[in-house]
Amino acid sequence: MKADQSHFNVVVVGAGISGIGAGYHLQKQCPNKSFVILEGRETFGGTWDLFRYPGIRSDSDMHTMGFRFKPWIDERFIADGPSIMNYLDETIAENNLKDKIKYQHKVLTSSWSSSESKWTLEVENIESGTIDNYTCNFLMCCGGYYNYEEGYNPAIKNQDQFKGPIIHPQKWPEDLNYQNKKVVIIGSGATAVTIVPAMADDVEHITMLQRSPTYFMAAPDRDMIGNFFKKIFPQKTAYFLTRWKNILMGNFFYNRCIKNPEKVKEMLINGVRDHLGKDYDIETHFTPRYKPWDERLCFVPNADFFEAMKAGKASVVTDHIDEFTETGIRLKSGKELDADIIIKATGLNLQFLNGIDVKVDNEKVDISEKLAFKGRMFNGIPNLACSFGYARASWTLGADLSSEYTCKLLNYMDKHGYDYCTPEVGEDVKEEGTYLNLSSGYVKRAIDRMPKQGSKAPWQGNQSYLSDVTEVRWGSITDNDLHFKTANQ
Predict the structure, then answer these.
(1) Coil/strand/helix, residue 143
(2) 108: Cβ contacts below 8 Å, ≥ 6 apart
(3) DSSP 233
(4) Cα separation, 239 vs 198, whole angstroms
(5) Which residues pair with 321 in a beta bridge?
(6) In order of start, what are the domains of the chain with their CATH numbers?
(7) What CA–CA distance (Å, rounded) separates 359 from 120?
(8) 401 and 386 in contact (C-beta within 8 Å)?
(9) CA distance 398 to 390
(10) Which of 25, 30, 99, 113 is the most buried if burial means most Cβ atoms within 10 Å?
(11) Alpha carbon of residue 257 to chain centroid
């Protein structure tokens, strides 16, 4: 890649799982396309480099969160952050992507010109302090779905009165000393359920404070069937079989949740009861008010969260916060929780299009007014695709398909002499719902900033890998609502 090159056929924004996968697919499927991966941070990895809290691990199995083209060979299918970073490092090295990535290059703005059939990007070179201009024919946004700068950090009454440190997991301090400390962690999502057992052996006590319960599912972190496949099949075959086993099992479980939510709810709650015993107040602390998969389930590998509770090192309190005090938290019930450290595992701030200011022919784009086309493009925005994963399955399954679809689209335009394509909403399509059909707090908070879904395909996201993989790999790229043009039209 020439040092002074500033025009590329494709610019990929982000060098996390999605961006690395996009780089692989562009090299494999579009070998004649020039591309660059612009990453605002100092290294690759995205989420897996950003989050440094104790116990950081995947919340999906690595046979589906890993890439289709690179087998996950560790016996553990739930992986810690450093293992995932090693896996991504290997992927970059094995596919000669190192020289394709420009670190500390943060895309600030992007402006599309239909007459020139190209994007012009303003990119902050963080190391030099300059603003550089890049141009490209196609823009791939692969920077995830949340704001990396700031997590959701709600103000709590008298928060400044607390004498100890208040930590958000998105900005975990390297020098935090929690040995023999009393810790309260606010929240009951995947982050909290990971941190509690990771810290439990070292603290005096850790309390998970939740407003309402979450669904948990405990299982071993080793895939017995997958590891058996490794013993009798070649590595790639074993990975392929394990990956598809997990895809099909995940799809089966989700369908059970939809068709018989009460039965699944009973199964999940009984699973918790089996770990904590019949005398524990399961009704108060582990019986959610919503149906399974209205929000993401929390996976508990090796039941470590429950083991920490049984050992007396961790506990759960279900209540609402009244205020912070000098020594902890006062609850609405009047109870007080003593704490030396408070961790606010209060979630993420959703963000679309990587937080980039986007213009199309000098008109600013408001993504909340757009409908998502096949979950990857947006009406009225030419030659732009977002890599987005699944809310109810591994992120990488969706991200890989997004890249495959984009490559197929680029090859189609080359074959037929088109310069750009734009999804346009047909007259019979109505706005119907938001982009993510989840009731999670981080989704509800961002509804006014999210793109919308339409009343019919291809403007509906079905959250089904089985449907999407069939369409992307064997379906037609053409659609009545996808308009192709040349620059002189």
Answers:
(1) coil
(2) 121, 122, 123, 124, 131, 356, 357
(3) S
(4) 29
(5) 331
(6) 7-149+349-485 (3.50.50.60), 159-344 (3.50.50.60)
(7) 10
(8) no
(9) 6
(10) 25
(11) 22
3-state secondary structure of 305: helix
Contacts of 124 (CB under 8 A, 6+ apart): 40, 105, 106, 107, 108, 130, 131, 132
Report which residue type is found at 150: E
- Is residue 203 within 8 A of residue 285, CB to CB? The reply is no
pLDDT by 10s per residue, the chain, length 489: 444 479 999 999 999 999 999 999 999 999 999 999 999 999 999 999 999 999 999 988 999 999 999 999 998 899 999 999 999 999 999 999 999 999 999 999 999 999 999 999 999 999 999 999 999 999 999 998 889 999 999 999 999 999 999 999 999 999 999 999 999 999 999 999 999 999 999 999 999 999 999 999 998 888 999 999 999 999 999 999 999 999 999 999 989 998 999 999 999 999 999 999 989 999 999 999 999 888 888 999 999 999 999 999 999 999 999 999 999 999 999 999 999 999 999 988 888 888 999 999 999 999 989 999 998 999 999 999 998 888 778 889 999 999 999 999 999 999 999 999 999 998 889 888 777 665 566 666 767 778 888 888 899 877 788 989 999 999 999 999 999 999 876
Return the closest-CA partner of residue 328 out of 152, 151, 158: 158
What span, in angstroms and rounded, lies between the C-alpha atoms of 380 and 365? 9
